[in-house]
Amino acid sequence: MDFTFFNQLMLILALSAITLAFFKRFQMPESLGYLFVGIILGPTTSGLIQQDFDIALLAEIGVVFLLFTLGLEFSMKTIMAMKKEVFGLGGLQVLVTGVGIFGILTFFNFPFLASLICASALALSSTAIVSKELTQSNEIRSRQGQLAIGVLLFQDISAVIFLIMIPALINGGSESIAIASSLGFALFEGIVFVVVMLSIGKWMLPAVFHEVAKARSEELFVLMALVVALMAAWLSHALELSMALGGFVAGMMMGESHYKHQVEADIRPFRDVLLGLFFVSVGLILDTAVLQEFWKEVLLGTIALIAFKFLVTYTLARTMGETKNISLRASLSLAQGGEFCFALVALASQYGENGGNLTSVVLAVTILSMVIAPILIRKSDRIVKLVKFDKSEDKVNRVKEEEVRKQTAHMHHHTLICGYGRVGQTIARFLTKEDKTYVAIDDDPLHVHEAGLAGEPVFYGDCRKLELLLAVGLERADQVVICIDRPENAIKIVTAIRESCQSTPILVRTRDDSQSDALKRAGATVVIPEVLESSLVIVKHALLMLGLNPLHVRQRVNEARTQGYEILNGFYPGMSDYLLEGANQTHRHAVTVHKSSKVCGQTIDLFDLKGTDVSIVEIRRDNMILQPQKGMKLFSGDIVVLTGSSNDISHIEKYFD
Which pLDDT value is given to residue 312? Predict the structure, then answer.
């Protein structure tokens, strides 16, 4: 069958949609899904798409946008604040890993240039996977998280340097003098390009975007962001440098402006789709015949890569004075290949250096290591506990907790605040006005530092650790207020508190009521859903503006609170709610009783609601709203309003068939 460009593109997008839905269900990285699509459709698998398919340009633009968004986050302030982690640990990790892999490849008589490109590519780790996993596990601000992010920052810098080096090395020929000359000129050209573009970004771009913002046109703003990114990529390409380098510099140009976050949000849809096409293009060049022939080498290579990168990072971290446990966690986070491996290999292929079988093996090793990476990061705590080779860290923690204990020993009948963000700070201010003492714990070092400068009793640490809670006087506290965003962590904190203090009141602030029951089962005394409380405040003012009696309005609002916000439970969802929240989000759904329904003429006791989270909110009959009561009969035309998750409501709907 003769596929045109449009047909092939539609085939890729359709299969990508199906594959990503499957990968998302099993919480696997989307990038691996796109790679899988490329492998399935590739010339060596199904043959539906050939290597000459004109996806290369779209894929390269996807890499441009990836580098653009990385450039937005490239803050010199962050790098200088973490210079030891970035240039110390990060620099040594890339150097030692790259040199080591290069030495191994040349020992097995692989070509010099192919070995250098593969070593540079394999020295880098996956920024997307590591940052996502550390954020989800709430370890992004931990010491091991800081080490991992510091190394990844230097790897991003290295990737830009590699993007300059690879075309120069390939175009330099085989003579060492020509290579050195080409490389030197490319580096000089790259430095001049970066300096000139950053100067334009500092002096001209803010004024341009200020005028664009004054127009108050979202389309114009998005268009200008795209023009800046693509124009920089075009200029970089015109200078015979990588287009991706231009994208990175464009991101740096915008990174220091006030429009940074708006630009990132606007360009994300373009980046995600085009970057997906890039990963598909990588899958297309992966030769499955080579994988079948060299599958043993791929498995051994994956194990060797993970082990080697782990040992390098662990040894360097220990040499720089980090504890064994922190070094172990950081090393497990960085022991995989990354997205830039694909970008560098694809860039080398564009300049005629395909690397033969080595390229397919390196790509397969990188993919397999990225599949294993989330498992290693998520299980790092278990691995550390299993090894148990560092008791000194426990001693350090005990010393820190002892210092906290001494500083809070005088506090009695105080409020313990877990989480010192916006809500936690507001509570603290009101407690201070009422001359009530408090102590707070937060895992954001900036919160703790700024509060410490003001003399406020705020300590850095993980609120889930019972030892730290006891150190700040949990057993002497009158109450505990938990003000953190992640409900799963709030449940762990409540559980930890109840292990030691059964009667201490615990007030938990949540965004919505999705985890209220779980928190109460864990031992929370009161759960305050922030969204529902703000709704009650708006309802109160709306009723008062209608002229209703203030006493009656207050009674209604208090009634809603005492009934556990039952009247506010669930809502009629829109399309965006289904897309964002999924099938487990609680919402309302109305079902009509027909003459043929099983429940018509029967009582509501017929419903088997056990084992579900479904409840009957109300029954609407002849323009009247009836409250459900035991023994109430349902008739044709009745509208039954249910609340619960989509899955459980679907189970109950069978009674209305």
Answer: 93
- pLDDT for position 258: 66
Is 60 exceeded by the pLDDT of residue 392?
no
Q: What is the dihedral of CA 200, 206, 207, 211, to 10 degrees?
A: 130
Tell me the mean pLDDT in the region 69-91: 75
- In order of 139, 142, 143, 401, 407, the CA distances from 462 in angstroms are 10, 9, 12, 12, 18
User: For residues 320 and 88, is the Cβ–Cβ distance under 8 A?
Assistant: yes
Report the alpha-carbon distance of residue 356 to residue 53 in Å, rounded.
20
Q: Which residues contact 363 (CB under 8 A, 6 or more apart)?
A: 282, 285, 286, 341, 342, 345
Element (H, E) at 417: strand 415-418
Q: Is 481 exposed, middle or buried (0-12, 13-18, 19+ CB in 10 A)?
A: buried
Beta carbons within 8 Å of 281's beta carbon, 6+ residues apart: 38, 55, 56, 59, 346
In DSSP terms, 250 is beta-bridged to none
Contact 112, 348 (CB under 8 A): no
398-445 pLDDT, tens digit per residue, is 546 777 888 888 888 899 999 888 888 888 888 888 888 999 988 777
How many Å apart are CA 512 and CA 458, to the nearest integer?
26
pLDDT tens figures, 116-148: 888 888 998 887 778 767 766 667 667 788 888
DSSP secondary-structure letter at 49? S
Relative to beta strand 624-626, strand 458-460 is unpaired
